[in-house]
Each structure stands twice: as structure tokens, then as C-alpha cells.
Amino acid sequence: DGGITQSPKYLFRKEGQNVTLSCEQNLNHDAMYWYRQDPGQGLRLIYYSQIVNDFQKGDIAEGYSVSREKKESFPLTVTSAQKNPTAFYLCASSNLDYYNEQFFGPGTRLTVL
Amino acid sequence: AQSVTQLGSHVSVSEGALVLLRCNYSSSVPPYLFWYVQYPNQGLQLLLKYTTGATLVKGINGFEAEFKKSETSFHLTKPSAHMSDAAEYFCAVSDRGYTGTASKLTFGTGTRLQVTL
């Protein structure tokens, strides 16, 4: 079954610690995305990548970092510089055809204590 | 710059009643428009999309939406609500990337649909 997996589903960390969220896809999609979701604010784009070893900042990249060493994987690191990291994080992927329909993973809920 | 406005953060309907969730967009280019549904603590699932062609778009689970360019709207409807429709719904507009480039989605703030007996 093709799809997107995110792990872990729930993550707890102490303030000041970096934490890495995993995102893997087996849809053979070229593009991958990371979004942050907060109550009442919809989804906001953090980073996206069109190709291996290349990525671009989205609207709220400060305090986050990503890598794209493999087509299938796009991990997100939430650094200690992120002022308010507690949120629901969603990974998505898409082809690079004209419509770029995005498919979403199940999400990771990060709570910083 | 693109934007999406969803009127009503919470909508409550009775089971069997019409569902109407409103979405207005702003885009400098002809838009691609999407409706996604999210169940608690889950990812987003595509309900339907408008790209080009027919302005009335049918999606999964009996939902449909009509693209009205003159009103810059893309409202989501379902003739008869079911308890299983209770979820959060997001409208999104794409910046219409060209083939070979990623396009970015701009989301509305979401509408939580409650279905009562």
C-alpha cells in the first residue's frame, strides 16, 4: 500500500532540546512538504523540497531545519530556537505535474514541556 | 499573494440536513482549489478539487463544490448530513505551479462541522 508515514505519532520533549520528526513516502513523489497546524490557524508551510538535496523555506521556517538526502525521506528538526514548538506537524508529498495534488501523512503531535 | 477565508469556524447541522461550508479565495491567477477533511488527530484527506473545466465538482462521500469566479467562492455542500461527516474541513488554494515545480497551498483556518441527531 502506497502512502506517507510519520513517526512518532506523539512526541514529548523538554524545552531547549532539539527534536527530529520523521516523514517517509513510498508514492515515488518528487516533492515533499512540512506544515504546522495550530488550533484556529489552519495549516502553515514550514519547508518544502522539489528534489533530493534541495529545499526551500516556507512561511514559518524560523526555528526549523530539514534535509532531503533520499527521495523517500524528508525529516524535520525542531530546534531550540523555535519559540513555541508545541503543535501538530503534518508532512505531505506530491508529483510535479500540473496539478500538484498533495497527499498527507497522519501527523505528529509534539508537546514541549 | 493568495488567501482563503472560511466563514464560520463552527457549523452545526442536524442529521439529514443540508451541509453548506463557505470558502472565498483571493488569487492573482486562475486558481486551483481544494477541499480537505480532517478527523481528530489524523492527517488531511482530499474531498475534491477544481482545476479547470466543469465548475461543479463532485467529490467523495457525497460532497460537491461549485467554483464561482464572479463571487471568488468555492463553497462545499452535501444534501444530507450524516453523523460520520463530523470533522474539520479546510479549503485551500494553490499557487498553480508549472509542470516540474512544486506548488504551494494556502489554507483557510478551517470549519468544524458538528452533526446532531
What features would you describe in this structure?
The complex is a heterodimer of chains A (113) and B (117). Chain A is an all-beta fold and 113 residues long. Helix content of chain A is 0%, strand content 50%. Chain A has strands at 4-7, 10-13, 19-25, 31-37, 43-51, 54-57, 64-66, 76-78, 87-94, 103-104, 108-112. In chain A, strands 2, 4, 5, 6, 9, 10 and 11 form a seven-stranded mixed beta sheet that branches. In chain A, a hairpin with a 5-residue loop joins strand 4 (31-37) and strand 5 (43-51). The radius of gyration of chain A is 13 Å and the shape is globular. The mean pLDDT of chain A is 93. Chain B is mainly beta. Chain B contains no helices and twelve strands. In chain B, the strands form three sheets. In chain B, strands 2, 5, 6, 10, 11 and 12 form a six-stranded mixed beta sheet that branches. In chain B, a hairpin with a 4-residue loop joins strand 8 (64-68) and strand 9 (73-78). Chain B starts with a strand and ends with a strand. The model of chain B has no long low-confidence stretch (mean pLDDT 92). At the A-B interface, strand 5, strand 9 and strand 10 of A face strand 5 and strand 6 of B.
